[in-house]
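ARCHIVE CARD
Drawer: 12
Card no.: 0347
Subject: one protein chain, sequence and derived structure
Cross-reference: see card 0346
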Amino acid sequence: MVGRPLPQVVFILALVLLLPSTTWVQPSLPPVNQQLTATSLPEQEQGLPEEQNQSTSLPASQAAAKEKKESSPFAAAPEVSGAEVSGVEERSAQPVTEKAEKQPAIKSPPPKPVAYRWGAPHRVSFRTEVKLTNSGNEAAEYLWVDLPLLENSSPYQSNTLQGTNYAIDSREGRVASFFIGDLAPGETKKVAVDYLVTIRPVSLSSSNDTVEKARQAYRQYARSGNCRALATGFVGRCRELGVTARLVNGFTRPQRALLAPGSLKGCRHSWAEFYVDGLGWVPVDLTFGYFADFPIASHLVESYDDQSVRVNYLGGKVEAIWENMILP
């Protein structure tokens, strides 16, 4: 009974002895310098996966850091690309002066608009009249007189018609027609029109481009001479500079004084006005040396164009004298 297990042991030993011997050889790895040389080739020629390529090209310190990062229990922080980092650096590196340049410029307040400055008003009673005398030997019949009335759109003057001694039959523009009837030889009749005229000294509170252009024309023509010729030259020059201007006909005292009572014979005068948008007409007297300034109530506007008195009649010989005056 004791010797029965022996054949099993002998069988196992014999089986071991009959098996062919095998030599286990571990494949040798190429040197490190050969791996480094291989990473310089394009990935297609190496035939390696992309991850293996990248791992073989990492230095030992970076490979250890990567292994540590992968084995860390903490979640990896999101990577930031180089383009994003450079974008942040560019924005933070912008100089302060560039921001200051982009700030809106501080605008200065707009200039005050040009305005009139007024002096104390001066009121006068103005009369324009035509004296008619028949110096012939027979009567003058169907006598008509066409008399130009005061015209005004200047801001420094206002006119109020007070009355006429003959009724106005008709009117065309500023010309009124009066029917006088018959005039016997040697007879004299008058046609009179009375006004209350208010005149105010005026000047400007400031200037603008229009005013300065008119001043340029004023400097060219302001001097002693024929008042109508100088005023006409000023108006023409203003229009060349793009400034609206006009000629003014009226009355003023040579002494540069207020319009005191008395005849205005020898006081007929011409000056000019230029127009400022948003304001109105501004006076200029070339011979008096007044630019945008009438310091006293010295100028009375009659009209802006010359029109004469016309007398129509049948028979006789009628003489007409046109006079203007300031009543007491």
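Annotation on reverse: The first strand starts at residue 116 and ends at 118. The chain is about 25% helix and 35% strand.
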